[in-house]
Design goal:
CATH topology of the largest domain: Ribosomal Protein L25, Chain P
Number of helices: 4
CATH architecture of the largest domain: Beta Barrel
Order of helices and strands: EEHEEHEEEEHEEEEEEH
CATH superfamily of the largest domain: Ribosomal Protein L25, Chain P
Mean pLDDT: 84
Length: 217
């Protein structure tokens, strides 16, 4: 369970848009801590926040007016063009409190489908989960070592750590390995051959049935 500290400064929640623009122009990101005792508006250094998010911290320690709070990442927004952080929301929690947050879904191992000429597509990279704050995993892994060309793995097939509930649709694609149009990889060629054999067999059976019916008639 990754845990980090974040230096923040309390800010005036009034005049939100002008204040938010001013903060961003000085390299700071506006945010809100959602707390049962009342929400707290704050700002944090853009570079510090970016490093924290890259590190995948699940629990974030902050201090406001001398009071320390344990929080989890609730949500964040990025600029659609520049990709920079524009806003972040944190949720104050207790270690044994059940919370909702996101964790990364990491593919590990080497998929045989890649060697067979397939193109790997990862369908989802973050999972929305529910668990105790003390039980938030750093990441959830899926081993792709048995995934071949033509196969798709859905979220239902991923082993989830004990005590963690995934809230995303279990039918969501995790990884798909497809053959480029016109390409014939080793396994792709076998699959095409098998399909051709099945079609030929079906046609032969149909012809035999028609012949038998004609003879009986």
């Amino acid at each position: 369970m990754a845990r980090a500290s974040l230096t923040i400064e309390k800010r005036d929640p009034k005049h939100k848009s002008p204040e938010a623009r001013r903060l961003r122009s000085t390299g700071r990101v506006p945010g809100v801590v959602y707390h049962t005792d009342g929400n707290i508006s704050f700002s944090a250094d853009n570079l510090e926040l970016a490093a924290l998010l890259r590190g995948g911290a699940n629990l974030i320690d902050i201090e406001i007016d001398g009071a320390k709070h344990l929080t989890v990442l609730k949500d964040y927004d990025v600029h659609p063009v520049r990709g920079s952080l524009v806003h972040i929301d944190l949720q104050a929690v207790a270690l044994e409190q059940v919370v909702r947050t996101t964790v990364s879904l990491t593919l590990v191992g080497e998929a045989p489908g890649a060697k067979e000429g397939g193109i790997i597509t990862q369908g989802i990279r973050e999972l929305l989960i529910e668990t105790k704050a003390s039980n938030i995993p750093d990441t959830i892994e899926f081993d792709v070592s048995n995934v071949h060309v033509g196969e798709t793995v859905i979220l239902k097939d991923v082993k989830i750590p004990e005590g963690v509930t995934v809230l995303d649709d279990e039918g969501t694609s995790v990884i798909a390995i497809t053959v480029p149009r016109g390409a014939k990889g080793a396994r792709g060629g076998d699959m095409e051959a098998e399909a051709a054999e099945d079609a030929a067999a079906a046609a032969a059976e149909g012809a035999s049935a028609a012949e038998a019916a004609s003879t009986e008639g």
